[in-house]
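Blackboard transcription, Thursday session:
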Amino acid sequence: MVQFSDIAAQLEGQSIELPSWAFGNSGTRFRVFGTPGTARNPEEKIADAAQVNKYTGLSPKVAIHIPWDKVDDYAALGAYANDLGVELGTVNSNTFQDEDYKFGSLTSSNPAVRQKAIDHHFECIDIMHATGSKDLKIWLADGTNYPGQDDIRGRQDRLAESLQTIYDRIGSDQRLVLEYKFFEPAFYHTDVPDWGTSYAQVAALGERALVCLDTGHHAPGTNIEFIVAQLLRLGKLGSFDFNSRFYADDDLIVGAADPFQLFRILYEVIRGGGYGPDSVVAFMLDQCHNIEAKIAGQMRSVLNVQEMTARALLVDRQALTAAQESNDVLGANAVLMDAFYTDVRGPLASWRESRGLPADPIAAFQASGYQEKISAERVGAQASWGA
Amino acid sequence: MVQFSDIAAQLEGQSIELPSWAFGNSGTRFRVFGTPGTARNPEEKIADAAQVNKYTGLSPKVAIHIPWDKVDDYAALGAYANDLGVELGTVNSNTFQDEDYKFGSLTSSNPAVRQKAIDHHFECIDIMHATGSKDLKIWLADGTNYPGQDDIRGRQDRLAESLQTIYDRIGSDQRLVLEYKFFEPAFYHTDVPDWGTSYAQVAALGERALVCLDTGHHAPGTNIEFIVAQLLRLGKLGSFDFNSRFYADDDLIVGAADPFQLFRILYEVIRGGGYGPDSVVAFMLDQCHNIEAKIAGQMRSVLNVQEMTARALLVDRQALTAAQESNDVLGANAVLMDAFYTDVRGPLASWRESRGLPADPIAAFQASGYQEKISAERVGAQASWGA
Amino acid sequence: MVQFSDIAAQLEGQSIELPSWAFGNSGTRFRVFGTPGTARNPEEKIADAAQVNKYTGLSPKVAIHIPWDKVDDYAALGAYANDLGVELGTVNSNTFQDEDYKFGSLTSSNPAVRQKAIDHHFECIDIMHATGSKDLKIWLADGTNYPGQDDIRGRQDRLAESLQTIYDRIGSDQRLVLEYKFFEPAFYHTDVPDWGTSYAQVAALGERALVCLDTGHHAPGTNIEFIVAQLLRLGKLGSFDFNSRFYADDDLIVGAADPFQLFRILYEVIRGGGYGPDSVVAFMLDQCHNIEAKIAGQMRSVLNVQEMTARALLVDRQALTAAQESNDVLGANAVLMDAFYTDVRGPLASWRESRGLPADPIAAFQASGYQEKISAERVGAQASWGA
Amino acid sequence: MVQFSDIAAQLEGQSIELPSWAFGNSGTRFRVFGTPGTARNPEEKIADAAQVNKYTGLSPKVAIHIPWDKVDDYAALGAYANDLGVELGTVNSNTFQDEDYKFGSLTSSNPAVRQKAIDHHFECIDIMHATGSKDLKIWLADGTNYPGQDDIRGRQDRLAESLQTIYDRIGSDQRLVLEYKFFEPAFYHTDVPDWGTSYAQVAALGERALVCLDTGHHAPGTNIEFIVAQLLRLGKLGSFDFNSRFYADDDLIVGAADPFQLFRILYEVIRGGGYGPDSVVAFMLDQCHNIEAKIAGQMRSVLNVQEMTARALLVDRQALTAAQESNDVLGANAVLMDAFYTDVRGPLASWRESRGLPADPIAAFQASGYQEKISAERVGAQASWGA
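(Written on the board underneath:)
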């Protein structure tokens, strides 16, 4: 039996990067609802993100999104973040909100549009140099809505060429991570729809090109932990975008829809060497708090990842292997479930307190008056996906 | 063998109602792209809809959406439509774009919000009296995003009560049609997610309450034609919202994603008495032309329905029944497929010309210069889902 | 906060009926693997089922399947069961394993086949009288593989007629429960594919006709707890067939694939009055232990239901309602998750011991030597779905 | 506009390999129904397959399955086939019907089981040398039913090693094609679940290892033509297993469930150079005629592929490219749909007659009396998946 005390040390240093855009408003095509106190600019998003880290100790980095988080002085933005105890992380590009990208960006058959999209990534790389960011994350909305609309094969070739041009520009200590997504916003075909495509594309680029796995970007029924195991085996798992979903890319709080799936994913991460100080895998959230409180929502998210990591670390690997090798189906499953069903919340609360963190981070935050303060102070246009 | 000449008469009088909102911009949560010439107000939407009818003869009615199509004088709007050769049809309510509805409308646990939503439907009924519309269509965005967020059972009871209040208000020659949808914008539970729920709710209301079937609102793999057959059997199929999808509620052009499915649906409509002068089933489009031309897109849509109706009418029912009753699986399937594979486009073009319509409605429209004219003339804010 | 001691009394009398066929071999179309010690006849299946009840106290009833469990003397079979501490429960009919049913049974267009299927149900009712069974469970494999193969609407009408004939035959203290299933073994259409169809059919029959919900029989993404809430609201939830699935009708151990879903289902059962001494809902397993130990597999299953029932009972309903009514999305969700994450295994072990049951039923069974004994003793043809 | 006469020459030499097992009985886990006249042994299966080729001219090869088609003298079997106008094709291995493979074959943690599975493939390679077969097709049933049951990552590594051993044994003019499948018979994880895994595995083996794409082996909603385009681009599409499905791996007649999908797939095949004399892609059926006539069912299948190939060849590539490059969404889609809706059945019938084949192959076969003859003559045990 593995005890919490056996695994506590492995919880040190866990870091789950926060997306700046989670602190702006988001919604569906039907409506973007507002929430009192929502951040109005990059600085306020970072300030809110810093609150999450202050109470949980789990999120020392904030990912930014260009152009949503465009500022004149990135060094100043970085210093501002540092003052609040966090640093700027992954830079996310955006090639889906400009009229020019209506029919594609890096895959466009129009060379001018393609160049514009490439230039945007060059700008992101410049920002990375200014902020000290290590990862350039590319998620493409590119795709088509109708059969025949464009040439699937030609787009794939143009994508390869565009990516190569961008990859050649990143610094020797920087990485390019390519995210895949099953569908949306394109409804017939998506240019990077599955891990196989992302893998084939980054494998052609070079060592510092890797795959980003968003847990909400798969076909119904897909075994995500299998993909985790496979990408780790192939040495190409670069990062996670965590969230959860019941239907499509719902972008709900990670662990909210299927906690057991999150557990299985984290178990395979650990099993495959993707967790810990030697791992190259970056962990990040990518969520939308459409109707719930945003700062508390992000806290709930990183705590879910922490709690489930603890459970996954509790798996008695020796007993598991023994049961597996003797084809004891029920016995092996029982070893895994025993860890999943273990309530780690009490030990984690004590562990937090021993590190000067509140036992209950969300309650501590809610008692702090921060939310009330920003709800009162922040008047005027709130940030959203558009800005 | 059934010939086109045998079924031509049955094509007379076919009517597919157009949604006014198809002529405004639409998009995804990521971006709403503009299209040159997009209508800016209800009048321009109706004018565009009238073009579809002018060239196809298939769409004499235009459904409106409140508040998107709110005007001061509905009688004047109706007269405007009549002048253009069309009339106003179904009135669609909207309880998903007001901050008050963030957590529900007709199902809200807040009596004030519920009353507001009911009052909105009363307003819609008043408009129906002014426009002479027969159908009040209710699609609810109500639902929750997280398990536990609200009480599923309590919401269902409140929904029943709200619907009863609305139903009691409609005129004796008016109908209430309740649409169901699998998911979106709610991501954990939807209050009217399936035909069973819609059926149970309208059955409790009375004779003039019926189900609206949107072809894009089902779980993956759902056999939609079975639902058509069942609802016709139960006497509760009120109307269709036609569109097509590959993944979720993609709202693509009807017949674009799976033409054979559209054929099967229309076959069951005909088989079950849902087509023709004696049918109470209303046919309507509900689509989004996010990236393609809108007027031509609507033309393509109604033509797809017409062409597939012709194919479905061509099914040799006598031969089919004979093969079915002798359990000749391949033979029965072949009778159906023979009709589906018959190219009706030539005969339909002749049929159109014999009625003073252009053989190729889309080409005729494109040659008319209308699109270029509106693209040049319509400057300023284009209509979209929000207005 | 609700404590285990607050809900312990409600665990008394929980009963999860076992399917006799879970103790025979099962498999896929590719292979049915054997397992040492598998029962060879109805008596041995019942003896194995009695072991589950002996160690868990949770399964005093065994459902039988006709003709798989056909015997000459049902009174003797019942007495044999009683001697082992269990009784015979639901009678399951079978209209899918006879050449005559190749193209349908209760829905067949051939009157002779339909009568044969009806007669089979009459036989099942006779057996129910002999065994004292209360429920006749009908799951139909009826459907078609190809569009056009048969007339969907006509089959539905014939189904209604066949069911009425059967319903008229059941005793005044007996019930007919109609199970629905999304697909398999039919691959184009299934005659009872969803809860709506099952509901419409049983509603037409009368008060003692109800719906059976098999947790593995839905389209991907279906919110099953919603259906539970709806059927309880409509007064038509008759019984459960518990199991779990990742893809289709996988028939895995209940709670194995998505424990949180099982929790949500049981919460809605409790919320809607479907649990406890006054409930009319029957709980049953319907699983296949294709590769794992069968008796221990059934134990794991009923324990999963018991553990998750305890968690669902632990939900602080008062706190939940308060959070729901104030639209505190995160707070309401947290109340639910708190119960789900509470480790009830220790308290349940003590509770069991206080009732003379082993703290760890599976370990106790495995230590008993029963499995080794039957593995050694039972030579010859093992029971399977075919016999 | 492309005319039939423009593409007729490209239809020459089209070959769709038939699976010997399609002429034996098949079914679901619920029941394998018999069909009069079903073949009883490899010779009769080949004789039936030869009928398909005799009337359609489309299927000069018959794939065999070991051990189902095991004979003492493969040279004699090949000669027998040649006498009937066909030849033996792909050799399919089977590692799912032996008790030893209950927990895996090429992925087993048991070295003895693994070696047995490897040896089986060596035997298949020996048979290939005897029959002159070029392709060894490996579809693995390997996987697990419960989380934790076995080590996903370890199995993947063992799979790589096993495949390497097999690959090293094939002749220099032989190929290994690795099929992937989403799920079934394993219900939690499958060792080769997607094209990405198959691609990564065969890419590691060498040039003569390729991917086999079975059109029924994907998650719901998967865009299969995208995978076709991608694999052709990567030079790794080895072969097709054609069939169709509404839900899971239904193994229905190709083109029966979604003819438009088949059209899109064939269009991408042609677009990517996968069709014609220079292509290395092998086309094969893999279907189950559970309830319909088998020989006629195979005829329907190859004719469906031929008809849809003709439609795909009819696409006006020049017009399509022009519309695509000008982002004319509706125009480009219309070019594609025009080809799909063109009724090629008449021209194909004439084309067949000009080659000495019957205009209506199925009718000609049915008029030949062959089916009646075998139904009368073939008494005794029919072949099925088990033998």
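Lecturer's comment: Residues 111-131 of chain C form the longest helix (21 residues).
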